[in-house]
Amino acid sequence: MELEREDQLVLDGEFGETRRLMMEILVALGKVFDAERMIPIRSAQVSGASYKTIGEYGLEWLKGLDARAAVPAVLNPIGMDRNRWREMGISPDFAKKQAEVISAYEHLGIRLDCTCTPYYLNMTQYGDHISWSESSAVAYSNSVIGARTNREGGPSALAAAIIGKTPYYGLHIVTNRKPGLVIDVDGTGTYDTSWFGALGYIAGKLAGNRIPYFRGIRPDRDQLKALGAAMAASGAVALFHVEGITPDSRVFSYDITGLETIPVSSREIGDLYKDIPVDAVAIGCPHCSTEELGAIAHQLEGNRVRKPLYIFTSRAVAGNARNSIEIIERSGARVFSDTCMVVSPCMDSYQAVMVNSGKAFAYVPNMCGAASRIGTLEECIRVACS
Ligand code: F3S
Q1: Phi, psi dihedrals of residue 232, rounded to the nearest 5°
Q2: Residue 90 Cα, ligand 1 centroid: separation in angstroms?
Q3: pLDDT tens column, 115-161
Q4: pTM for the complete prediction?
Q5: CA distance 1 to 223
Q6: Mutate to test the pocket of ligand 1, among 47, 116, 341 (most ligand atoms within 8 A of CB)
């Protein structure tokens, strides 16, 4: 891989050990994927932020680093709400370790927005090269915004944040962004966000790491968010196209002749909705938008929850949705920021959790040790209140 002179000096250790190590990570990645050069990036999003997922080894590694991010960079959700962790039932020992993780990232110049929806922070636009690592954020930024990122790991996103560059390969290259599979959805009618999450859960398994091209659906932005997040969880989808909706599908008018075409029916999607008893409900995977918080508030107004109902959003979105949050919390539900039902230990004590997200539906069993049930937002609220 061709390195500019300054990058070579970084690799030679002229700008400190941490930068040398970060450049070494990027160069190794570039060599694996035959990148010819590095390109500058506009932003980074760094995963590996919850003490639940990185543990002591990850924390010690982070503490040994000493440099500052060269581009705007934000952190993925951590294991607790930074202000209300006691209300979440987080132990003081966990909170102490999590605080150490946060301060290690702060030392590296990573912004503590702690969200998997950094696109609500206006960090990126069509055509930007970025290095994001949380899989649903990657799917959204590539597909819905039309930015360009590979599905980075935590260390490679951190390395890109500190160096301000990434190797030019994979989804940064326009010709690699063509569809590899057509998914024809028999989906006439009006469906809620969970339906798109359930579709994504099925489509991700069909697609694996191919780039799906959907026909037959007209999702809005929150529904696209749910679709991409679920496909990134049940498969390894980092980019998808929806005919006539997502930006690349309109800019490039892809020729899909000859691609494998798989039908998905509403009946298959409906089969995922099973009526099993649950002892908690969690909404906000990925983190809720202001519109989603408004819809939840609308349904909870005047009601009282009888089961724990957790709602997750970013601190920035929460700041713009105070009225909705007040209504939601008056019902007894709780809205937490910085964290989520999967990366926090707060859901680990439940037997079965109801969600309205295809991604959470896929992750809750392994990450929280609970059975998962998917339902519409309306069903989730009804179950929480009954
Ligand atoms: Fe975000 Fe956590 Fe879901 S990081 S996408 S809310 S698993």
Answers
A1: -70, -20
A2: 18
A3: 999 999 988 999 999 999 999 999 999 999 999 999 999 999 999 99
A4: 0.96
A5: 40
A6: 116
